[in-house]
Specification:
This protein has about 1000 residues and is mainly β. It has 16 helices and 54 strands. It is globular, with a radius of gyration of 30 Å.
């Protein structure tokens, strides 16, 4: 059924796994015989980026590969951890995200967003990973069944669909497995807490611990935690006549939590240095503190004193250290189960199927909830108020007698109730069924239908009810007994007073009343039907020995999702939520036709060893519009040793269901200071207060508010209004690649590829960004931007009450990125170097030079276009180093032992501070202005103990590097750094065994 072709020399693809490329042409079995050395007989295989089978694995668009061997050597139990080590990949959601976690694991190629990265399994797309996230969830993929991962930039949209703007990540699964395989692994993190980097952090934590030991404490010098366990069983059997195979698998994975308190560099939330200690970070934190902050943001600012008294609140001494109880690594538990099968009914029909199931549960924990200045006032006759406290807030004797109310915002953490826990449970189902075969010699068909479903069950615990909080603080005396007014008037007989005006005043009964669960359920579904025909036309150019190959077909796809939230979520009643989470439903369907060709121009000609061109086209019809996506590519090898390649593709990506229909609700964005805060600007070297800050409009503040310091959120978090937009237009992207592949005949077993890439997206579907809106309003006097800013009427804040910046999905100007990918592989038998009897060496290298990563907000101002290359934080988010690479050297000994060393490098980056003309290098003298380059070294070994048993062990981040730190990380990172990129948890030690039966 499959055409066999012989080719003396395999043109290599760019990959990480060295010369293991030949391995993926053969079936994966428990034991595999060695391949002949004189020549390699290959099946025609489908390479990512084309539906046309081919033996020439050098494509016109560069493909980078990770093999199953890499997964074993890296010791990963989460496939995203390995994919995100590739220089082309940037982490989005993963296990290190706590505040704002969706519970999924996603990848963002070229840092253009996970929505623009298409994830495939065996060339067929995955659906939405969650009702809250439009990217595929890599948690659904059983890592031990992955044969290889192919990453393609450019040219993918015309083949797979327009959402592959940044590229494709294709997980190729093992097939035709025979036997029984059991794989088990155990790993843990070990870290020595001896941070000696910038900022004197350990000394600052120790200093703060002298006055507030309950919140500031150095962790143990040596910690081991974050244990991971996985076990996977694979069973496969082939039909006696060789016409079919069935493979089934089952797996279990469990990862323990890591708390930020257990690393010295995350044991406190960093803040800007104080004037008296300019080279030392402060331990900042949140003004929602413990035992509390009581203020009107104007005339008084207090915390608890002895008894029922107030004393002045000091940010340096009293801000709440919210970092220690946050999860640095979320705990998770996952079960996987599935089966793959095929059977050849006759030479013209082979039926096939894939069934996959996963049950994934994770908990995201952040600092306790409480009263986030949710209530604006208090009654002066409250029996909970001491006389001195009542006087402090301005209550007179007459006010007390009359029960008048005075302004009082209470910021107090629910330390008694513990951290907020967001429990996320996903059940994922995916099924593919189809038939494929030969129509006539040289022509094949493939018809398949697939269905996927993700069910979400989410429970958010330990949050306070704003409604109940207001009632529990509105207390009167009934016969000398403090009683909620709502009990007296009958509106809420269950109310229990919340006594925060004296230490130890909070009762369990009050917590039971105030703490509420918030519940969300939802599902996503995807239905796809695809029919494709591929064929050899039998026609060739006179100068070519290979024929024109074509592929064409049609596809229908429907994506739908729904989210249901309970009343507590919908109403925004959760005090620690920032606003309501409103359920929604939506769906989108598309009908498409596609075609592809590959035309060899020359083979073994005096002017060309080989040359060809290829192209692809896809027409997509949505409900309200149609789009055209296409690609053209060419490759030319003047001699056998060198090949040049280039491609151009146009992609038009339609908005997806989440971008269109997400209900509006509040969320948080990160900022170092409020642009209208005089103290905040001074502390960050931001210059004079913009004149547009002062006034009476909704976006303006008074001079007193600007000078007070109350505009700055101690936690660096501010509110914005997010939501979908049904009027979005498709975005357009142009991708160019050009490169060279060199395999010198005088240097056997060496190959090198260098590829340039350029991706430009116009009308990108994105938010403008709250930081950009603030800049446009206050620095550029943009009236439209100012109209999207609403400050809290009580004090002018954007982090208290109703203050927020509107930031809905729109079509912005766009993005542009370009750079160069470098891949190299080499292997040598040490006997060739005169060292007989010591095995062989193989090396691989993949690196990316980032030339530009430009954002155009589309606002048309001088600073509306900026380049994040080499910058991090604020407008730029996760670090974007100019150079990243991963290199590996493996020694295959003659004693059934392989030893590998890996070097991972991330270049220096600088803090992004937007300035005139779109410049970002305006960090001044900040301690965290620069992140030094990071180099991580990993060691691993595999030992074939016997023919059927292999043992592996390794250590990642051997030298236990401390991560780079900044107080501008916010919710984009976690624990004062970016654990999505840097090894923030210490060295990782793992042991594993694979047994075949």
């Amino acid at each position: 059924m499959r055409t066999q072709k012989t080719r003396i020399r395999l043109l290599s693809t760019t990959m990480i796994g060295g010369f293991a490329a030949l391995a993926f042409a053969a079936p994966a079995m428990a034991q595999t015989a060695p391949a002949p050395q004189d020549e390699t007989q290959l099946d025609e295989v489908v390479v990512t980026g084309s539906r046309i089978p081919q033996t020439n694995l050098v494509t016109t668009s560069p493909v980078t590969q990770v093999t199953g061997e890499d997964i074993d050597i890296a010791g990963v139990t989460r496939v995203e951890d390995l994919v995100n080590q590739l220089p082309q990949a940037f982490a989005a959601q993963n296990s290190t995200v706590a505040n704002g976690a969706s519970g999924t694991a996603t990848v963002s190629l070229r840092n253009l967003g996970s929505s623009r990265t298409l994830v495939l399994i065996d060339g067929r797309r995955m659906g939405y990973g969650s009702p809250n996230d439009d990217a595929a969830d890599l948690n659904q993929i059983p890592e031990q069944l992955v044969e290889r991962v192919e990453v393609l930039t450019g040219g993918a949209s015309a083949v797979y669909g327009s959402d592959a703007v940044a590229g494709v990540v294709n997980f190729i699964m093992k097939k035709d497995f025979e036997g029984v395989q059991l794989d088990a692994q155990y790993g843990f993190y070990q870290h020595n807490n001896d941070y000696d980097g910038v900022g004197n952090l350990r000394a600052e934590i120790a200093r703060r611990g002298t006055t507030n030991p309950s919140q500031f404490a150095l962790p143990d010098d040596n910690v081991s935690d974050g244990e991971s366990r996985s076990i996977n069983l694979t069973v496969g059997v082939s039909a006696p006549d060789g016409k079919g195979n069935v493979m089934a698998y089952a797996g279990y994975r469990n990862n323990n939590a890591i708390l930020q308190r257990d690393r010295d560099y995350s044991a406190c939330s960093l803040g800007a240095p104080a004037a008296v200690r300019p080279t030392t970070y402060t331990c900042g934190g949140s003004g929602t503190s413990f035992p509390g902050r009581f203020t009107d943001f104007s005339t008084f600012n207090s915390t608890l004193g002895a008894g029922r008294t107030f004393v002045p609140f000091s940010a340096d001494a009293n801000n709440y250290n919210f970092g220690p109880v946050n999860y640095y690594q979320r705990p998770d538990e996952r079960y996987t189960l599935g089966a793959f099968g095929r059977y050849e009914i006759n030479p013209h029909a082979e039926v096939f199927a894939q069934l996959m199931f996963s049950d994934y549960k994770s908990v995201a924990q952040i600092a306790p909830s409480g009263s986030f200045f949710n209530t604006p006032d208090v009654n002066c006759d409250s029996p909970l108020l001491g006389a001195q406290q009542a006087a402090t807030i301005g209550c007179t004797a007459a006010d007390i007698l009359a029960g008048n109310r005075r302004t009082l915002y209470v910021g107090r953490r629910n330390v008694e109730g513990g951290g907020r826990q967001d429990t996320l449970n996903y059940e994922s189902y995916r099924g593919v069924a189809g038939v494929r075969g030969e129509i006539v010699p040289g022509w094949n068909y493939d018809v398949a239908a697939q269905f996927s479903r993700v069910n979400l069950s989410r429970v958010y615990q330990n949050d306070f009810s704003v409604t109940r909080l207001g009632r529990a603080l509105d207390v009167v005396s009934v016969g000398g007994v403090p009683t909620c007014r709502s009990v007296v008037n009958g509106t809420d007989p269950a109310c229990v007073p919340y006594d925060v005006f004296i230490a130890g005043g909070v009762t369990q009964a009050a917590l039971d009343y105030l703490q509420i669960p918030l519940i969300q359920t939802g599902e996503t579904t995807q239905q796809v039907v695809t029919a494709a025909i591929t064929g050899d036309t039998g026609w060739s150019m006179p100068t070519a020995s290979r024929n024109l190959q074509v592929a064409f077909g049609a596809e229908y796809r429907r994506d739908a999702l729904g989210s249901i939230t309970d009343t507590n979520f919908q109403s925004g009643d959760g005090a620690g939520q920032g606003g309501p989470t409103i359920g929604f439903t939506g769906d989108a369907d598309v009908a498409e036709v596609f075609a592809e060709f590959q035309l060899p121009l020359a083979d073994d000609q005096p002017w060309a060893y080989s040359a060809s061109i290829d192209g692809a086209y896809r027409r997509s019809e949505y409900e309200n519009y149609g789009t055209d996506t296409y690609k053209l590519g060419a490759d030319y090898a003047p001699v056998e040793d060198i090949r040049f390649r280039a491609s151009y593709s146009r992609a038009v990506r339609a908005p997806n269901v989440i971008e269109l229909f997400t209900a509006q609700g509040f969320n948080l964005f990160d900022a170092d200071f409020d642009p209208c805060s005089t103290p905040g600007r001074a502390a960050n070297g931001a210059g004079a207060l913009p004149a547009n800050c002062i006034g009476t409009a909704a976006y303006q503040v008074t001079a007193g508010q600007a000078a007070s310091g109350a505009l700055d959120s101690p936690a660096g978090q501010y509110s914005f209004l997010q939501g979908g937009n049904p009027n979005l237009n498709p975005e357009e992207a142009d991708t160019y690649t050009a490169g060279v592949v060199w395999e010198p005949s005088f240097f056997p077993r060496f190959n090198l590829s260098v590829d340039y890439f350029s991706i430009k997206i116009d009308g990108a579907i994105q938010t403008l960004g709250a930081l950009n809106t603030l800049n446009l309003c206050y620095n550029q006097n943009d009236a439209a931007a100012c109209s999207r800013i609403s400050r809290n009427p009580g004090g002018g804040q954007l982090w208290v009450g109703s203050g927020n910046v509107e930031d809905l999905n729109i079509n912005i100007g766009g993005y542009e990125t370009s750079g160069v990918d470098v891949n190299a592989n080499y292997s040598v038998d040490l006997e060739d170097w005169g060292v007989a009897g010591y095995g062989s060496l193989s090396g691989s290298f993949v690196g990316t030079y980032l030339s530009e990563l430009v954002t155009d907000t589309g606002a048309g101002q001088s600073d509306s276009v900026y380049d994040c290359t080499g910058f991090y934080a604020n407008q730029c988010g996760v670090p974007n180093p100019e150079w990243r690479h991963r290199a590996r050297l493996t020694w295959s000994t003659p004693w059934d032992l392989d030893v590998s060393g890996t070097w991972r490098h991330y270049g220096e980056v600088e803090l992004a501070v937007l300035g005139a003309g779109g410049s970002l290098n305006n960090g001044g003298t900040r301690l965290d202005r620069y992140f030094d380059a990071e180099n991580y070294f990993d060691l691993a070994a595999t030992w074939q103990v016997m023919d059927t048993v292999t043992f592996r062990a390794g250590v990642n981040n051997v030298f236990d590097n401390d991560p780079q730190l900044s107080y501008s990380v916010g919710t984009t990172g976690n624990g004062n750094t970016y654990p999505q990129l840097y090894d923030a948890l210490g060295r990782y030690v793992f042991f594993g065994v694979t047994a075949n039966f």
